[in-house]
From TrEMBL:
Residues 10-22 have a biased composition (Basic and acidic residues). This is HTH-type transcriptional activator RhaR. InterPro entries: AraC_XylS_family_regulators, Homeodomain-like_sf, HTH_AraC, HTH_AraC-typ_CS, Tscrpt_reg_AraC-type_HTH. It comes from the Bacteria. Transmembrane segments: none annotated. The keyword Transcription applies.
Length: 350
C-alpha cells in the first residue's frame, strides 16, 4: 500500500515523489482509504516516523560517534553526550589527535576539571553548568583531568556545513571566515541557547526531530561564523528576500503531500531549488514562521480534519499525520490548540 498524505492534496505532488500520491479507485472514498491505511500502517524501528536516536552516546572522550562510517563528518551536525560519575578519584582522559570538525561542548552540570589543548591550559578549576567551549578542527592533542562527575553535551560541525553556511553569509568569498582553530571558552547566550535546545531532542522531538536538528544546526553554525568572521570579509548586506511565490507553492504542495512522514529541510530546499540556509531565511520571511513550525502547524490542521470528519482512533490519526506515537501527538496538539485531541473532537461535534 502506498504512502498516504493529506486527503485534500492527493494530486498536488510533483516530480520524483508523484508516485506516492493517493489514487482513489475501487469505489473507496477518502475516509475509507485513510482508515484502511491507518489499520495497515505500523512503525518499525527504522521507519521515518520512528527516527533513530539523534543524540549518540560518546563512548570515547571527544571522539565523534560514527566517525568510521563518515570520516569527513558528512553535511549535518552530529550530537553526542559524554558522562562520567566520580566519587573521590580523579579521571584523566586524552586524545592524541583532533576531529576534522568544529566541536561545541556544553557542560550540563557544574564540575571541576582542567583542560589542555596543544600544550596550553584552557581551563583549570570550577566549570559552571552551561559553560560552552568551542574547538577547531586542527589535529592537536588535548588532555583533561576531571575531579568531579561530569555530563557534557557535544555538537560536531563538519567542514561541509561550515562551508555551506559561509557561502550563504559571505557570497563570493574565497576563504572560510571561522577563526576558532584553537579551543576557547565562549560566552554567547544565543549560541549557548541553540546548543541547549538540542539536548533533549530525542524525548521531545518525535518524528519532527530531524528537521528541527537541521534548522538548529544551520542556525548555530551561522552564529559561530558570525562571531568569528575574519575582518575584511564582506557579508551579504542585500535586503532579505522573500521566497518567490512559485517556490513557496511548490514547497507547500510538497509538505501537504508528505504530512504522514518525516520531511527534512534538505528535501524542502531541493524542492525550492535553493540552498538550505537561503531557503530557511526566505521561507521564514515569506510565511512568518520557520519551516519546522509550519510543518507542525499543517500536521495539526490535518489532524483536526480527521478528528472532525472520521471515526478513526487517535492512535491511527497520530500515525497518519506523521507523529511517532499518540502521546507525542497529544502533547503537540494540546500545545497548539489548547485542548487534547479527544476534547477537540467532542467540541467539534464528532
Amino acid at each position: 500500500m502506498g504512502t498516504f498524505g493529506n486527503p485534500d492534496q492527493e494530486n498536488s505532488k510533483s516530480g520524483k515523489d508523484a508516485s506516492r500520491c493517493v489514487r482513489l479507485d475501487g469505489g473507496m472514498n477518502r475516509v475509507e482509504m485513510l482508515e484502511a491505511a491507518a489499520t495497515a500502517k505500523s512503525v518499525s524501528p527504522h521507519s521515518p516516523n520512528n527516527p533513530s536516536n539523534l543524540v549518540l552516546r560518546e563512548d570515547n572522550w571527544r571522539r565523534r560517534p560514527g566517525r568510521e562510517m563518515r570520516p569527513d563528518g558528512g553535511r549535518d551536525i552530529i550530537l553526542s553526550r559524554w558522562t562520567i560519575q566520580l566519587a573521590n578519584d580523579e579521571l584523566e582522559v586524552s586524545r592524541d589527535e583532533g576531529e576534522p570538525c568544529h566541536v561545541l561542548s556544553i557542560a550540563l552540570q557544574a564540575t571541576r576539571q582542567s583542560f589542555h589543548w596543544n600544550g596550553d591550559t584552557v581551563v583549570d578549576g570550577r566549570v559552571p553548568a552551561h559553560s560552552l567551549m568551542v574547538s577547531g578542527p586542527r589535529d592537536h592533542p588535548c588532555r583533561a583531568v576531571f575531579r568531579q562527575s561530569a555530563d557534557v553535551f557535544r555538537v560536531y560541525i563538519p567542514p561541509a556545513l561550515i562551508e555551506e553556511c559561509t557561502r550563504g553569509l559571505f557570497p563570493g568569498s574565497g576563504a572560510l571566515p571561522v577563526g576558532f582553530c584553537t579551543a576557547n571558552l565562549v560566552e554567547d547566550e544565543a549560541l549557548s541557547r541553540l546548543v541547549r535546545s538540542l539536548v533533549n531532542i530525542d524525548e521531545q522531538g518525535g518524528s519532527l526531530a530531524p528537521i528541527f536538528v537541521e534548522g538548529i544546526g544551520l542556525a548555530l553554525t551561522a552564529r559561530l561564523i558570525a562571531l568569528q568572521a575574519t575582518p575584511g570579509l564582506s557579508r551579504d548586506a542585500s535586503p532579505k528576500r522573500v521566497l518567490a511565490p512559485w517556490r513557496l507553492q511548490r514547497v507547500k504542495d510538497y509538505i501537504e503531500g508528505n504530512l504522514d512522514r518525516t520531511i527534512t529541510l534538505e528535501e524542502m530546499s531541493e524542492v525550492a531549488c535553493l540552498s538550505r540556509i537561503r531557503f530557511g531565511a526566505q521561507f521564514r520571511e515569506a510565511v512568518g514562521v520557520t519551516p519546522y513550525t509550519y510543518v507542525l502547524q499543517r500536521r495539526v490542521a490535518y489532524a483536526q480534519r480527521l478528528l472532525r470528519d472520521t471515526k478513526m482512533p487517535l492512535a491511527q490519526i497520530a500515525l497518519l499525520v506523521g507523529f511517532s506515537s499518540q502521546a507525542h501527538f497529544t502533547t503537540i496538539f494540546g500545545r497548539h490548540i489548547g485542548l487534547s485531541p479527544g476534547q477537540w473532537r467532542r467540541s467539534a461535534g464528532n
